[in-house]
């Protein structure tokens, strides 16, 4: 089944080469105890087990405040780089709540801080370096941070994984514990590991010549008791070419990634999409809580199981591109053709079965400014909801094509 990304830029949740890498996560397993606000008929979040979290942690849910932060992260592109002001506000509000709560006390003394963390979101300094913008703000790259403090060589490493086929960049720092929250570190080495080369390529930063500029600290302001979520603030986690830049930054990192996050990551890389969809839809079916409803709002199509094969206007009329607006039993397709010129098609939907609707689209026009040119066309199809919540919708529509839509009109 061919996959396609439709105009969605992925950042993963906006940061610096100090934090993220590929998805080395295990398969998710359902847990009834997870709580997350969702629409009627949907199950809870499905956490995955981290290799560093014990068996007793596998069934541990995200708490409600943690789930609120994860909910705010859904749909944010470039790890925050392309976040809207409203999205940034939602994340900052959720972060502030967690930082007032009691997570793991003295996190630097806990085994839960150890291991590989994926960067999901970071505040973006206005003077971000070209390297930061290139590596961290691109969703097809995965960014990780590894923390290993209980060894003969304590280290904090920031990793950018370009792809499994290409390789990664790893920037390492010698680390020590200052107190229960703070880790002190000094950058001392970095290198590219390229899959097709039998040797590492040094990253051209002369750390030894930088003196105190190569030093920094990282505070953990919240570490979840499950060991799955961490909020940190640092003074120096960005690396310019030949210079380490001191800049305060907030990071949200996860060991466990819930199914919707895995799906967005799969779409951004173009790999494992069908598996991620199956994970979500199977979990939803197993819950069997009731009917799925077509949630009102503005939805952007980010993936479909079939490439467009007809003319662009037929693709637009069949919902194979652009946005869908759902409101009061009415459905509208909107496709931007050129700046100031768009295709619009209106229609209606009627409930026809379990999680299914009959859709009729019959009022089309090409619109430019205040003027519209009617287009004679009609399309009918059945829409089956496979999964839906306030952020993501998975459905089967025209010609049995599977669609993934992301809600883009804000959060509830």
Automatic annotation (TrEMBL):
Task: Please name the InterPro entries in this protein's record.
Answer: PAP, PAP/fibrillin_dom
**Segments forming domain Plastid lipid-associated protein/fibrillin conserved:** 66-236
Q: What Pfam families is this protein classified in?
A: PAP_fibrillin
**What does the UniProt keyword field contain?**
Plastid, Transit peptide
Entry keyword Cell membrane:
no
The listed locations are: Plastid
Keyword Plastid included in the entry's annotation: yes
Q: Which GO terms describe its cellular component?
A: plastid
> What superkingdom heads the lineage?
Eukaryota
Family, according to the entry, reads as follows: Belongs to the PAP/fibrillin family.
Q: What is this protein called?
A: Plastid lipid-associated protein/fibrillin conserved domain-containing protein
Q: Which organism is it from?
A: Eucalyptus grandis (Flooded gum)
């Amino acid at each position: 089944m061919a996959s396609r990304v439709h105009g969605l830029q992925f950042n993963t949740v906006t940061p610096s080469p100090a934090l993220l890498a590929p998805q080395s996560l295990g398969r998710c397993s359902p847990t009834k105890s997870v709580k997350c606000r969702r629409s009627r008929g949907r199950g809870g979040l499905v956490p995955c087990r981290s290799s560093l979290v014990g068996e007793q942690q596998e069934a541990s849910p995200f708490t409600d405040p943690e789930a609120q932060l994860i909910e705010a992260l859904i749909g944010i592109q470039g790890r925050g780089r392309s976040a809207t002001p409203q999205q940034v506000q939602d994340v900052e509000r959720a972060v502030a709540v967690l930082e007032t709560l009691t997570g793991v006390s003295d996190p630097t003394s806990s085994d839960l801080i150890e291991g590989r963390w994926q960067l999901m979101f970071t505040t973006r300094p206005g003077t971000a370096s070209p390297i930061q913008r290139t590596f961290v703000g691109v969703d097809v790259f995965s960014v990780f941070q590894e923390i290993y403090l209980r060894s003969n060589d304590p280290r904090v490493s920031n990793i950018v994984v370009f792809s499994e086929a290409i390789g990664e960049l790893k920037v390492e720092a010698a680390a020590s514990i200052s107190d229960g929250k703070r880790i002190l570190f000094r950058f001392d080495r970095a290198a590219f590991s390229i899959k097709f080369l039998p040797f590492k390529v040094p990253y051209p930063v002369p750390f030894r010549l930088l003196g105190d500029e190569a030093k920094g600290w990282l505070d953990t302001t919240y570490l979840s008791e499950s060991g799955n979520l961490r909020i940190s603030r640092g003074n120096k986690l960005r690396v310019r070419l030949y210079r380490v830049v001191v800049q305060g930054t907030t990071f949200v990192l996860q060991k466990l990634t819930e199914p919707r996050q895995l799906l967005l990551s799969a779409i951004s890389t173009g790999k494992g999409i069908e598996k991620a969809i199956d994970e979500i839809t199977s979990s939803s079916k197993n819950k069997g809580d009731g009917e799925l409803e077509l949630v009102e709002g503005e939805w952007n199509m980010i993936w479909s199981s079939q490439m467009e094969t007809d003319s662009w206007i037929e693709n637009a009329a069949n919902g194979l591109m652009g946005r869908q607006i759902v409101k009061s039993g009415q459905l509208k397709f909107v496709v931007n053709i050129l700046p100031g010129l768009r295709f619009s098609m209106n229609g209606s939907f009627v409930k026809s079965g379990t999680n299914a609707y009959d859709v009729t689209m019959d009022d089309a026009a090409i619109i430019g400014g205040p003027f519209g040119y009617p287009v004679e066309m009609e399309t009918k199809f059945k829409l089956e909801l496979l999964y839906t919540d306030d952020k993501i919708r998975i459905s089967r529509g025209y010609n049995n094509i599977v669609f993934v839509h992301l809600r883009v009109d804000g959060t509830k």
